[in-house]
């Protein structure tokens, strides 16, 4: 009864304001949690390869790619799928997550050259992530 009496004392517009406040907080919390997974990295990103690049055992052509971080049992995998083409190139490669000291400040594509003079993807840090993907 005490609760009922105290609720009667609060004007209806204040109750609506309080309810709206909690709905906004709940929505913001959901949005912030959707940004990264429990490993501190986003599940889906986009990356542009400015030249043909070897990713795992595949040589991907230059272009824009959706990069999806997925788990297969205990393995971290990155799935690259080319965007904007009828026959998209795809690659699946195992990666290791290496924690960073803080959030990555920028997206980067770090590669090295192999004996066949191909670019080979080595590391992908994405802006805002707490770990980088190392191949």
Walk me through what this model shows:
This protein has 135 residues and is α+β, with helices and mostly antiparallel strands. The chain has 2 domains: 2-35; 44-134. It has helices at residues 2-9, 12-35; strands at 44-49, 53-55, 58-60, 63-72, 75-82, 90-99, 110-113, 119-124, 131-134. Strands 1, 2, 3, 4, 5, 6, 7, 8 and 9 form a 9-stranded mixed β-sheet that branches. A hairpin with a 2-residue loop joins strand 2 and strand 3. It is elongated, with a radius of gyration of 23 Å. The termini are far apart. The model is unreliable at 27-35 (pLDDT under 50).
Q: Give the overall shape, derived from the CA principal axes.
A: elongated
Structural class: alpha+beta
Domains counted in the coordinates: how many? 2
Low-confidence stretches: 27-35
- What is the count of β-strands? 9
Question: Strand-and-helix sequence, N→C?
Answer: HHEEEEEEEEE
Q: Treating each run of at least 4 consecutive H or I residues as one helix, how many helices? A: 2
Give Rg in angstroms. 23 Å
| N-end to C-end Cα span | 63 Å
What percent strand? 35-45%
Mean pLDDT: 83
Set out the fold topology.
Elements (H helix, E strand, L loop, with lengths): L1 H8 L2 H24 L8 E6 L3 E3 L2 E3 L2 E10 L2 E8 L7 E10 L10 E4 L5 E6 L6 E4 L1
Parallel strand pairs: 2-8
Antiparallel strand pairs: 1-4, 2-3, 4-5, 5-6, 6-9, 7-8, 8-9
């Amino acid at each position: 009864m005490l609760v009922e009496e105290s609720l009667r004392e609060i004007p209806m517009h204040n109750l609506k304001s309080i309810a709206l406040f909690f709905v906004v907080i709940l929505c913001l919390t959901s949005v912030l949690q959707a940004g990264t997974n429990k490993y501190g990295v986003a599940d889906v990103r986009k990356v542009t390869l400015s030249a043909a690049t070897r990713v795992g055992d595949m040589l991907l052509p230059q272009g824009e790619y959706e990069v999806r971080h997925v788990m297969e049992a205990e393995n971290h995998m990155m799935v690259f799928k080319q965007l904007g083409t009828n026959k998209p190139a795809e690659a699946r490669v195992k990666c290791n997550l290496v924690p960073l000291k803080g959030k990555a400040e920028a997206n980067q594509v770090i590669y090295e050259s192999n004996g066949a003079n191909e670019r080979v993807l080595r590391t992908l840090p994405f802006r805002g992530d707490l770990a980088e993907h190392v191949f």
